[in-house]
Amino acid sequence: MLKVEGITVCYGQIPALRNVSLTVEEGELVTLIGANGAGKTTTLRAISGLLPLASGRITFEGREIGNAAPRTVLALGVAHCPEGRRVFPHLTVRENLEMGAYLRRDHQAVAQDMERLFDRFPRLKERLNQPAGTMSGGEQQMLAIARALMSRPKIVLFDEPSLGLAPNLVERTFEIVSDIRREGTTVLMVEQNAYAALDMCDRAYLLESGQVMEQGTGQAMLANDHIQRAYLGG
Amino acid sequence: MTTRLLPWLFVLVMAVGPLWLGDQYILYVLTSTGIFIIGAMSLNLLLGYTGQLSLGHIAFFGIGAYTSALLSLGFDLDLGGVEPFVLGPQPVWVAFLGGILVAALFGFLIGKLAFRVRGAYFVIVTISFAQVMRMVALNWVDLTEGPMALNNIPPLSVWLPWDGVLPLYRKEYNYLLVLAVAVVCFLVIQRLVQSRVGRALVALRENESLARSVGIDVTRYLVVATVIAAGMAGAAGGLYTHYIRIVDPDVFMFIYTVTMVIMVVTGGKGTLAGPIVGGLAFGILPEVLREVARPEVQWIIYGVAMIVVVFFLPQGIVPAVKNWFAGRRKRVAGTALGLRKETSA
Amino acid sequence: MEAHLQHLLNAVVLGGTYALLGIGLTLIFGIMRVVNFTHGELYTFGAYMAYMLAGMMGLNFFMSLAMAALLGMALGALIEFTLLRPLKGADIDTTMLVMIGAGIAMQAGEQLVWGGVAKSVPSPFPTEPVVLGSVSVGMNRLFVLGVALLLLGGFYLLINRTKLGVAMRATFQDPDTAALMGVNRGLMYTLTFALGSGLAATAGALLGPIFVVTPTMGDLVALKAFAIVILGGLGNIPGATIGGFVLALAEEFGAGYLSSGYRDAMGFILIIAVLIVRPQGLFAMKERIG
Amino acid sequence: MSLAFDESAAPILEVREVAVHFSGLIAIASMSFAVPEGEIVSLIGPNGAGKTTAFNVITGFLKPTGGKVLFRGTDLTRLSSNRIAGLGVVRTFQRTSIFAGCTVFDNVLTGMHRQGRAETWGALLRLASVRAETERMRAAVAEILAFVGLSHRADELAGNLAYGEQRLLGIAIALAADPKLLLLDEPAAGLNPSETEAFMGVVQRIRDRGVTILLVEHDMRMVMTISDRVVVLNHGRIIAEGPPEVIRANPDVIQAYLGQGVKHAKG
Amino acid sequence: QETIKIGVTQPLTGAVAASGNYVANGARVAEEVVNANGGVLGKKIQLIIEDNKSNPKEAVASAEKLIVRDKVPVLMGAWSSTFTLAVMPKLVEYGVPMVVETSSSTKITTSGNPWVFRIAPTSAMEAKSFAEKLDHFQPAIQKADFLAVNNDFGRGSADEFRKMLQAKGVKIGVTETMAPEATDLSAQLSSIKQSGGDTLFVTTGVEQITLILKQAAELRLPHRVITNGGSSSPDQLIAQAGAAADGGYFTLFFAPWFPEKAVHPTVAKTFVDGWNKKGYDFAGLTEGYRGYDGIMTIVEAIKKAGKAEPQAIRDALWTVKLDGVNGDIAFKKDGPEGKESGQNEANVYVVQVKDGKVTMP
Ligand SMILES: Nc1ncnc2c1ncn2[C@@H]1O[C@H](COP(=O)(O)OP(=O)(O)OP(=O)(O)O)[C@@H](O)[C@H]1O
Ligand SMILES: Nc1ncnc2c1ncn2[C@@H]1O[C@H](COP(=O)(O)OP(=O)(O)OP(=O)(O)O)[C@@H](O)[C@H]1O
Ligand SMILES: [Mg+2]
Ligand SMILES: [Mg+2]
């Protein structure tokens, strides 16, 4: 479904990704792990069109999307929940969610989706008219996740969705990820909570210094010595 | 080592070059540009280092100019008391220093105020302050003569052991004086920004709450910066007033602040040499343009030149030149490294 | 009493035009954070367009007004596209410098094209004022007030109640994330700048027949518009509206009862005073830290 | 690991009945707790419980609606945030906070502000003492960068660092300020388990240097491992307080915060 | 062939560009007329016109440039009093005379600058001439209010007229001022309406006069409006203020509708013809004459001096007796002894707009 083929991405002159390839099949949950600065975020940003490719190809459902505008990529069904929350600080919670459904025209369905998300994150409903920037870190993270789901994507790119969430909510978030998968949405997830991520995913990739070092099923990766030592603190 | 000597070489060339050329007109242009460069340097301290855009900076310049002019001419002030307050003409240097002090005092007030308002709000407060000052100069006719202007302002003077007191009517002297003041201001700013105080200012620019969280007394340093910047702008104003020898409320014109901003940003804000390079470029440009086109077209070229500079050198001229040199050095180093690799392989 | 009423009426009428200028700028300065030094020139541009269309070409006044607004938008779009777009990501001072350059060039261009001599736009309204008891006001001024109020209401709804308005605000708070939501960033930038410019041009075209049209007419106006935006809080349309009226009241009563020499200072004194008490402007919230 | 909470240790920080309201919204209803000198105390609680708000109150970024904060007997609620930092109470930010336009080195150097004495006049006259001080500080910066593991990034612009590195830099800056009491707001967010583990070592070493630490963190493995004591906040009220093993078993805390299947959470 | 250069500094851009350009145009007409008649001392004259950008600092820069770069032996300028005052130290520094064509501040000729020769009248002189015409006004002026632009020109004029009217037994109401760039004057006019006077004296440029007339009509101001300072152009006012201009009186130093009523009709006619030939705006004649008379004065002085040298021109300026568009031009001594400046006694005309036409009562 999503195919990244040998991409190189640079900030200025310096390459952050070198010849990275990965694939995500329809209905899969794939995670990306790696140390700080390995290039995980960069990979997701390149897929969703925020960064230009120096070389390589990205295709989604057979269509070339490397270097396409973020809007085009989203319209094809790729949603991106960015790192570090990135809610619109001066918009209210409701307006933030509306932004998530920006490209959608089916207003009634949008309203229903919003209600469903409120069931998952009741706090958001309590705070509908609060400017997002005044919410607590975790509340903002909930909002960011909910917002990404508002577009009814075919695939969601999550960049550290559990960041700053309390344990019970981390749990809830992973449940949601499982839920949406069950509903047929594909997921590509960057997660520092490597145990949980590897445990629940189908396949995983390990990035180191901008290159794919390992790949395999989640369980295989969990069992991998190197990964145990370097990333799981085992 | 060369980079340390470079500024002094520049000063030497500036001190000797124009005098050697002996062209009065060039001297005039350089002197009046130099005065504004001093203003721009002081603005850079705020804009470039603390990140506070003072779009009313000319107010300090004007206050310096008016104070210096009034002190040197003497004035009487009826404040509604029994006796009007009368002050006779003061020696020009006393007046000049007075101008600096009063400007610095206003800088203190504005700095205190800036404690409360930042960013766009600070911009507007400073604009408003300059406008109010202009209105005061315009309407307090008893003191400032309002729009009728203060004229016949004495020039600055020097005391020479063999000549006694010599009023500086000649351009050469005025030019050298402006140059000297500029050098002093440069040194003050340089030392300040390269110190702990300077880092505190930059911290304020970059991230105020973080700065406070590590114990930087943001208000205090902002006040220090504003006082110094205002004092320097006041000195520039004093130089101006004793050089042009008339001062009227137009000295508070917005376009003058804009001129300083242009000098700072095109030259490279937050760099020491920026205001000087930008100042020379955009101070001299209008004089060059005089010969080229009709007046309106001169302005158009001037405006377009600014846009062009930003487009091609968005950081300003000085950082662009620095990067170019750094890049070249890196390339040279890179090839050297490459060679070594080959030989070792 | 009569004098109070007359001053009040003057202030309300003037406040409408100030508010109009304020919301145009609050879009660009308040929302986009571009210190727009062409705002005054776009105002001037609108006035000259009204002069050209209604005065020289003899078009219907209301038609000319609409066309001047559209031309102002077009010019705004052009400025955004050629000058601001290539600078994407540059800081506020850098874009400001470009706008200063553009403003200087535009003003000189206006003088080159139209000459320095004042022009006047023919007005379709009778010169006879509307008399209300002891006070009176020009018909054309009432018209301006009416249009201003309509535009203020319309833009309030646009920015705060429509999807487009939300997207506009989102874009300038976080362009990258807005793009991830499917917003066409470029379009938003151009559109916002064009709308702000269109409002400035509309103000110019509306006021052209009341005042006279000169190349420097925008200078003072631009400064006041900045003041109004700040008074109301950045990006806040109701704030800018109220800011406009407050400024007009301060000027009118300051000039009427204190000293006319300080008339134009009143607004600025007011701003300093307001910002000392409420540093974030009259109608804005404080930011959260941490 | 150190012993459980020692009643006799004098509190370095005492929060007394602090309340914070935001126009109608009650962020903190009433909160009292103490931090004994030399310990690591964790403040945990669900999202939106008021932890960051408490930090904001302690460090003077927010004036509380009511209550007091005593640092070695001084009431902090009256002081400005920089004065509080001047007393040695230094915090990090939950939202990454660095001097983005400066190099990593300069970021930390700026953090050392409190340790410098050079003032305007000294700088203008370029006194020898000032120059010596600068040299000393530069050496200290290198040490701190090595301590948090950012030495190799010293000349990079801080804004260009990856997220996790920026978080580490934030801590380096706080350390540079020579804290007596260090308040860390979710320092491990964005670190993977190994990095977190290494970071726990860093925190413990900071404590061993005599710095008291108040920690807000959602990574329970870290909290439970290194804390001497845990304070649990929910809906702006303290619902439990005690050594980690007690808190871990507290049903209220499990219900409100930890959740049932702790297996997914880190640790 | 060599030419004789004459320097002109005027505001060609910026706030007061409109008037500055009119004056510059008048000077250009003079240049053509002189050169068409064979120039002076057998050479053609050549104007070098510099823009002083409506600001005093630039006024100095333009004077420096003209004197040092172009080596002109004589200057004309610099429109506003502040620009002129700013240039004056340069005249002493380089020893170059300047003919002042517009500025009205008394300071210019009283501050002891022997290189300044002003053909424009001071506000005091204008008030004095106006006093002679006071009886023409029916009904007589009982109580006067003032609205003046807040600069040397406006304030000076309001002061002098107030003094003069007071001496004539007219009651004085309020004096309001306005910023030069102000467009909304309703506050000031509302206060003036309150004062209950019958006549409003207005001193400012033509743009603001237009605004005042329009806004006075909107506020139903009962006053008769009289403008002074000579910087208005009734034609422009009729065109732009329409009916609102009706009934107003305007003091001028040249009334181009009635060249025959000028002191020297043929001179006035030559000027108007030259102006029209160049296709300049009729409305600009009331200001343009200043440039014309200024250059003519300079040319006359050069002729008398017999050489184009600053000192000689200055000495010759004292002996000039010229038929100007405004009237006779000759300089009297003004200012401290030994350092006197030259001041010309200018003529003043009052016209009235009636039924959309300019008339001379
Ligand atoms: N805007 C930028 N400019 C320059 N370099 C950048 C920029 N953003 C990231 N980098 C660099 O690119 C590399 C990869 O960064 P990236 O953000 O993709 O890492 P990451 O794997 O997501 O790390 P983390 O876990 O810390 O989020 C890092 O070395 C980082 O310093
Ligand atoms: N400036 C503000 N205006 C309005 N509400 C606010 C403001 N600041 C905080 N709040 C609210 O106060 C509550 C406490 O926020 P706080 O940031 O302290 O939570 P927290 O415990 O740090 O949560 P997290 O673990 O998610 O970071 C939240 O519900 C938040 O929405
Ligand atoms: Mg990342
Ligand atoms: Mg928090």
UniProtKB/TrEMBL annotation, chain A:
Its transmembrane ranges are: none
Supply the InterPro entries for this chain: AAA+_ATPase, ABC_branched_ATPase_LivF/BraG, ABC_transporter-like_ATP-bd, ABC_transporter-like_CS, BCAA_Transport_ATP-bd_LivF, P-loop_NTPase
Identify the keywords attached in UniProt to this record, alphabetized. Answer: Amino-acid transport, ATP-binding, Nucleotide-binding, Transport
What PROSITE patterns would the database entry show? Answer: ABC_TRANSPORTER_1, ABC_TRANSPORTER_2
Show the Pfam families listed in the entry: ABC_tran
GO terms (molecular function) for this protein are: ATP binding; ATP hydrolysis activity; branched-chain amino acid transmembrane transporter activity
Q: Which residues form the ABC transporter domain?
A: 2-234
Question: Where does the source fall among the domains of life?
Answer: Bacteria
Q: Which GO terms describe its biological process?
A: L-amino acid transport
Q: Which family does it belong to?
A: Belongs to the ABC transporter superfamily.
Q: Know the name of this protein?
A: Amino acid/amide ABC transporter ATP-binding protein 2 (HAAT family)
Naturally occurring in which organism (per UniProt): Azospirillum brasilense
TrEMBL record, chain B:
Instruction: Report the source organism.
Output: Azospirillum himalayense
Which is an annotated Pfam family here? BPD_transp_2
- This protein's name: Branched-chain amino acid ABC transporter permease
Q: Does the keyword Transmembrane apply?
A: yes
Give the subcellular location. Cell membrane
Spell out the InterPro entries in the cross-references.
ABC_transp_permease, LivM-like
Topology class, membrane: Multi-pass membrane protein
Show which residues constitute the signal peptide: none
Q: What does the UniProt keyword field contain?
A: Cell membrane, Membrane, Transmembrane, Transmembrane helix
Q: Its principal location?
A: membrane
Q: What is the lineage of its organism?
A: Bacteria, Pseudomonadati, Pseudomonadota, Alphaproteobacteria, Rhodospirillales
Spell out where the chain crosses the membrane. 25-47, 54-73, 93-114, 173-193, 221-240, 246-265, 299-321
TrEMBL record, chain C:
Provide the membrane topology annotation. Answer: Multi-pass membrane protein
Q: Where does the UniProt entry say this protein principally localizes?
A: membrane
Top-level lineage group: Bacteria
Q: Which InterPro entries match?
A: ABC_transp_permease (IPR001851), BCAA_transport_permease (IPR052157)
TM helices/strands, residue ranges: 12-35, 65-84, 138-159, 187-213, 225-250, 262-281
Q: Where does this protein reside within or beyond the cell?
A: Cell membrane
State the UniProt keywords alphabetically: Amino-acid transport, Cell membrane, Membrane, Transmembrane, Transmembrane helix, Transport
Q: Which family does it belong to?
A: Belongs to the binding-protein-dependent transport system permease family. LivHM subfamily.
Report what the protein is called.
Branched-chain amino acid ABC transporter permease
Q: Which organism is it from?
A: Azospirillum himalayense
Automatic annotation (TrEMBL), chain D:
Q: Which domain of life is it from?
A: Bacteria
Q: Which GO terms describe its molecular function?
A: ATP binding; ATP hydrolysis activity
Q: Known SUPFAM superfamilies for this protein?
A: P-loop containing nucleoside triphosphate hydrolases
Tell me yes or no: is Transport among this UniProt entry's keywords: yes
Q: Which UniProt keywords apply?
A: ATP-binding, Nucleotide-binding, Plasmid, Transport
Record-annotated ABC transporter domain positions = 13-260
- CDD domains in the record: ABC_Mj1267_LivG_branched
Report the Pfam families cross-referenced here: ABC_tran, BCA_ABC_TP_C
In terms of PROSITE patterns, this protein maps to: ABC_TRANSPORTER_1, ABC_TRANSPORTER_2
Entry GO terms, CC: plasma membrane
Q: What SMART domains does UniProt report for this protein, alphabetically?
A: AAA
Is-annotated flag, keyword Iron? no
* Name recorded for this polypeptide: ABC transporter ATP-binding protein
Cite the source lineage: Bacteria, Pseudomonadati, Pseudomonadota, Alphaproteobacteria, Rhodospirillales
